[in-house]
Write a structure and sequence with these properties.
Elements: E1 3-7, H1 14-30, E2 35-37, H2 51-62, E3 65-72, E4 75-81, E5 86-88, E6 112-115, E7 118-124, H3 131-139, E8 144-149, H4 156-170, E9 173-178, E10 186-189, E11 195-199, E12 203-207, H5 211-220
Helix pairs in contact: 1-2
């Protein structure tokens, strides 16, 4: 399985976005990818009723699943096109000193995507700070995480630490598509926490998870089987 991540700056309109995305979608398909992951809020905090239809058309044109970060119905979403599940960001970034998810509604919980026989968990940006979500995905059978992000560049090192930790502690691949205008990279992380791919300029990052490695690694170090839920409760 080959997956593609678009390291792309936010655009001001669906038309501008499609102009930037079309060559990336074409390249992704030519490289054998069946899924293209976009960053969080790819139009910024603009809600465009035309965007879903445009992304569905792009996905259909290139025979791809496009997983895009967008704003809709007062939710910060990661939505699968041309059709598929919608993940609404569970953990809203709310701070008095920085622009975040003010005025938005939190999502109800985890959402899984089945793709080419594999189970993928969906997440957005600030969700990386909450290991509970990713552990829930792992317990539900997720073998990889798809994360859209618009993480502030001032905290780029923290983002990478969290991405590697979420992958390693759940023994799952993690694919993070970051917005190029934020100054943070897009990443492809292995189940043992190694960074297998990184993109810092606008363009495409290709990722090819080795499922045989994942299964062997989980069999050798069965972390999830060693959990002791009874020991984690307050006395």
């Amino acid at each position: 399985m080959r997956l593609a991540l678009a390291h792309l700056a936010k655009r001001d309109s669906p038309k501008e976005l499609l102009q930037a995305l079309r060559p990336l979608a074409q390249e992704a398909r030519a490289e054998g990818a069946g899924l293209l992951l976009l960053p969080e809020l790819i139009l910024g905090r603009r809600e465009s009723p035309d965007l879903p239809e445009a992304l569905a058309a792009l996905a259909g044109e290139f025979g791809l699943r496009v997983v895009a970060g967008l704003l809709a119905a007062r939710e910060n979403r990661l939505q699968v096109f041309p059709q598929g599940p919608i993940y609404a960001k569970v953990h809203l970034y709310l701070t008095p000193e920085e622009e975040g998810d003010e005025g938005l509604l939190p999502g109800p919980g985890p959402v899984l995507l089945l793709h080419e026989g594999r189970t993928l968990g969906l997440a957005l940006c600030y969700d990386l700070d909450f290991p509970e979500l990713f552990r829930t995905y792992a317990l539900l059978g997720a073998q990889a995480f798809l994360v859209g992000a618009a993480w502030p560049g001032a905290y780029a090192e923290l983002m990478e630490v969290l991405a590697r930790a979420r992958a390693a502690e759940n023994q799952a691949y993690l694919l993070l598509a970051s917005r190029a205008d934020t100054g943070t990279p897009s990443l492809f992380v292995a189940p043992d926490g190694r960074v297998l791919g990184r993109r810092e300029e606008e363009g495409l990052l290709l990722a090819e998870p080795d499922w045989g490695f994942l299964e062997a690694y989980r069999a050798r170090y069965p972390l999830l089987k060693h959990r002791r839920e009874e020991a984690y409760r307050p006395a």
